[in-house]
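Query structure, 86 tokens:
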């Protein structure tokens, strides 16, 4: 049963990463500052890891998910700090 969750996790993760990369590139071509959407990727990956950890009871996935979410939040704060706000 855990194998099914891991396969579904990898599929959803690949879809999310693909969507983020596609829309980030399109938004940057239209004038959005580079890197604005890239902090969403670690947050999305972290949420997926955390939800997979809750389903499969694997503690290390929860730890990795929390670290990934923290990285995304840090990248977002750094982006807004470097660019003078919104």
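Result returned for the query:
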């Amino acid at each position: 049963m855990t194998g099914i969750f891991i396969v579904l996790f990898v599929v959803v993760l690949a879809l999310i990463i693909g969507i983020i990369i596609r829309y980030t590139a399109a938004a940057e071509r239209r004038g959005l500052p580079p890197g604005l959407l890239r902090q969403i990727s670690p947050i999305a990956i972290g949420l997926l890891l955390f939800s997979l950890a809750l389903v499969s009871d694997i503690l290390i996935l929860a730890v990795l998910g929390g670290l990934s979410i923290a990285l995304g939040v840090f990248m977002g704060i750094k982006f807004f700090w470097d660019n003078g706000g919104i």
